Amino acid sequence: MLLSRNYRRKWSNPMLDPKIEAALNRQINHEMAAAYNYLAMSAWFEHGNLTGFASWMMSQRLEELTHAQKLLQYVLDRGGQIELDAVEKPKNDFADVHEVFALALEMEKENTETINDLYVMANELGDYATQSHLQWFLDEQVEEEKTFDEIKSLLEMAGDDRSALLYLNDKLGARAAAPKPAE
Ligand SMILES: [Fe+2]
Ligand SMILES: [Fe+2]
Question: d(Cα 173, Cα 178) in Å, to the nearest integer?
Fold first, then answer.
């Protein structure tokens, strides 16, 4: 710890509660785990020559790394400590593209739950700065779940039709390559 806790007590924002500090550190791990899973999914697609899906998943991976970084910076900005943990081994092999997106959607839903729990905790502790920071993540999760749900539904519509699958591969590839609007 670079600065004593007494020094930080002068700040108008209260010190990060150890419970919130630990939960934010766990959330960093969840975001890193999501990134690692999307990397595995991207590699699986690339191996199967579905390069559009592969580059889309690679973009998702980068987004998750950004989320982890955002949380890490927030903990540091509040004078908290970072304790990185091991990232769980991702699933590396899949039966088909449907399984990939079903798992991804499930993971996003779990992630929404942990962010909701964090928000509740921040509320109970009267930590409004953390609530405000988490607001961005709550909005992001709405987008994430919607996106994955849409792709999962399109894949269900495509079923076993290979030309529809290749069309979606192209479509997702084009979207991943498009420049993103500035935040
Ligand atoms: Fe995320
Ligand atoms: Fe996500």
Answer: 9
Determine whether 51 is exposed, middle or buried from the number of CB atoms within 10 Å of its CB (0-12, 13-18, 19+).
middle
Local structure of 27: helix, strand or coil: helix
For residue 173, the CA-to-ligand 1 centroid distance in Å is: 21
Nearest in space to 115 (alpha carbons), one of 68, 166, 170, 47: 68
Convert the pLDDT of each residue in 143-174 to its tens digit: 999 999 999 999 999 998 999 999 999 999 99
Residues whose CB falls within 8 Å of the CB of residue 175, separated by 6 or more in sequence, listed in order: 56
Q: What are phi and psi of 169, to 5 degrees?
A: -60, -45
28 C-alpha to ligand 2 centroid (Å) = 12
Closest ligand to residue 70's CA: 1
What are the sequence ranges of the domains in the chain?
17-176
Ligand with smallest separation from the Cα of 146:
2
CATH class of 17-176: mainly alpha
**pTM exceeds 0.85 for this model:** yes
Rounded to whole angstroms, the Cα distance separating 72 from 30 reads 12
